[in-house]
Amino acid sequence: MRFSALSPLWLKNLSSLSVDISLLPQVENTPHVARYTPQFWHFRALPVTFGNHLATGRGIFSQPMHLPLLKDSLVVSTRDMKTWLLFICLAILLPACDSGPSTAVSEIIPKTIGFGLAASPITLDPRFATDAVSSRINRLLYDRLVDFDESFHPIPALAEWQRVTPLHYRFFLKEERRPFHNGAPLTARDVKATYDSILDENTASAHRAMLTVIERIIVMDRDTIDFHLRTSDPLFPGRLALGILPADSIARGHPFNREPIGSGPMAFLDWPHEGKLRLRRLSDGVIIAFVRVPEATVRVLKLLRGEIDLIQNDLLPELVSWLSAREDIVVRTGRGINFSYIGFHLEDAVVGDLRLRKAVAHALDREAIIRYVWGGTARVANAVLIPDHWAGHPSLPSIPFDPVRARALLAQMGYTENHRPTLVYKTSSNPFRVRLATIIQAQLQRVGIDVDLRSHDWGTFYGDIKAGRFQMYSLAWVSIKMPDIFRYAFHSTSFPPAGANRGRFAEPLADRLIDEAQATSSLTGQAKLYRELQEYVLARLPYVPLWYEDNILVMGSDITGYTLTPDGNYDGLINVRRLSSPTF
Fold first, then answer.
1. Which terminus of the chain is more solvent-facing, meaning fewer CB atoms within 10 Å of its CB: N or C?
2. Cα gap 127→124, rounded to integer Å
3. Digits of tens for pLDDT over the chain (584 positions)?
4. Is residue 220 included in any domain, yes or no?
C-alpha cells in the first residue's frame, strides 16, 4: 500500500510512537514560567530519542535526536511541540510508506541542483526587491556596478569609478562583461535607464530614497557614465549595488518581476508555480531549482530523501545538531551579520526610562541563550555593525549579565515584588522566535519584570512595528553593509515614514555625530565618528543588542563547491556541483 506521508492515513500509526521525555508541571528554578503552562511544554533534560533503522533517501536514520537545553530544563512552545511531533512522525513514517521503487515525481533531475527555501522570492525585479530571498536570487540574475569586500568596503563589480569632485563620480564599465540574457550588449545607456527608472516617482521603487542624492546621470560614451550629486556623499559608490536592466525592455514595460532579463551568471528558466523557480547556470547549463518548503522539518526530510540538495539557514538549531552527526550530510557554519535586538518605544512612560531599559539589558543571559538554545551558532552583539566592519567598533564593551544590578535599577524606579512593571512584548509567530521570546520573558520575570508576550503573523507584527504600535519588540537587521543605517535607524529626522527610527530615538549628540560622519570625506574619519556614535547608542539603549546569527549550510555529501558568505547571499550556487548523479 502506498500513500502520501502528509496524508491523514498515517495518523493511525501514532499509537505506537513513544518519546523518552518527562512532562513536568513547571520548570525547575523558574517559578514564574509555571503561569504559562497552557501555552508551553516544560521538559527535564532528557534526550528525545526516536528511530533505530529508518531508511531514507540518503542513508540510515539512526542517530538519537536531542532537543537543546537551557541549563537543566527546556521550555518549548506549543507551536514548537507540534513541529517536533510532525518531524518525528514524518521521520518514522516516510520510509515505511516506501515499500517499493518510488514512482513519485522528484523535485530535481540529473544536472539539476535543488535548493530548499522557507519562502519564495516576492519579485525578480531588483528595483522592487526588499526581502532577503528576492535580493539574494536577483544577485544571480543581474550584474551590478558595485559590490562589497569582506570588510564591506565598496569594490568594483561591473565598473571601476573615479571621484572627479565631491559632487561628481565617473564610472567606467569593464571591457570583460556579459551581455544581457536576451543577447543585447550591456552599455552605459542601460545603467542610466535603470537608475532613472528607480528615481522616477511613478516607478515607486523602495530604493529611491537612498538615491535621491543623485541630481542627474549623463552617458559619456558606450562604456562611461557620470553621476552628478546634489550634496557630497562619500558613501555614494556603495549605493550602486542594484542589478542593471536592459534599457529597451524598461521602455517597453517588460514584466521583470516574473520574466527577468539580466546579465548575471544565471538566466531565468521558468517559474511554473509559487513553490518552484528554476534558473540555468550559464557556465555549464546546470539547472538550479529553488524549491519552497515552508516547514523546516519537511525541508530536512526532503534533503534526507534526496529531493533537494542544499538548505541555507531557517533551521532549528536542534535539527542542525542532529544533522551534523550524519555521515551522508555535510553541515557548515560561518559568521553572519544579521543583528538581532530588542527595540522600545521611547515615548512610552515605562520603557522610555533609561533605567528600565538598562534593567532589561542586565537581566538577559545572552551567553546562555546562545549556548543552550542557539547551540553556539550565534555570537553576542553590542552594535548594529559587526566589529569586523570598517566602521564597526571592535572594542565596544559588552553589557554584562547582572540580575542584581537589574533589580537595583527597578528599585530605584520605585518597583517592588508587589509592584512590578508589566511590558507588552511583541514578536512574530515563527516558532523559534516565539521560543526565544519565551526565554527572554522568563529571564525578565526573574528580576521582577512581568511580560505580556504577544506573537502575531509576520504581516500583522511588522505592520504594528512600522506603525509604532508597540512597547517592546524583537527584530533583526539583515545584511547591513552601509553605515548609513545609523541615520536610517537613529537620526531624529528618520521617524517613520521618513526612515526606520521606529522607537523615536531623538538625541542631539547622536544627530550631530551622524551628520558629521556623513560629511567627512575620509573613511578613517567616518569610522572614528561612527565608533563614537556606537558607544553613545549603547549607553542610551534605544535597542538592547542581542546577537549576530551564524549562517548555516546543510547539504548532501555528494554536493561540493558552495561557499558561505557573511551576508547570507546565494552566490555559492555559482560554483556548486554534484560529485555523482542522483540515485533515482
1. N
2. 9
3. 333 333 333 333 333 333 333 333 333 333 333 333 333 444 433 333 333 333 344 543 334 444 443 444 444 455 555 555 555 555 554 444 443 333 333 444 448 999 999 989 999 999 999 888 999 999 999 999 999 998 899 999 999 999 999 999 999 999 999 999 999 999 999 999 999 999 999 998 988 888 999 999 999 999 999 999 999 998 999 999 999 999 999 999 999 999 999 999 999 999 998 899 999 999 999 999 999 999 999 999 999 999 999 999 999 999 999 999 999 999 999 999 999 999 999 999 999 999 999 999 999 999 999 999 999 999 999 999 999 999 999 999 999 999 999 999 999 999 999 999 999 999 998 888 999 999 999 999 999 999 999 999 988 998 999 899 999 999 999 889 999 999 999 999 999 888 889 999 999 999 999 999 988 988 899 999 999 999 999 999 999 999 999 999 999 999 999 999 999 999 999 999 998 755 43
4. yes
Report the C-alpha gap between 576 and 563 in whole angstroms: 8
99 and 137 share one domain: no
Residues 357 and 445 in one domain: yes
Q: Which residue has the cell 527610527?
A: 501
Residue with cell 565608533: 531
For residues 233 and 380, state if they share a domain: no
**Looking at the domain assignment, is residue 348 inside a domain?**
yes
**427 and 539 fall within a common domain:** yes
Q: pTM for this one?
A: 0.79
Can you tell me whether residue 193 is helix, strand or coil? helix
Nearest 5 degrees, angle CA 501-CA 146-CA 255? 80
**Domain count along the chain:** 3
Residues 59 and 98 in one domain: yes
Which residues constitute the domain of residue 528? 335-549
Burial class (CB in 10 A: 0-12, 13-18, 19+), 508: exposed
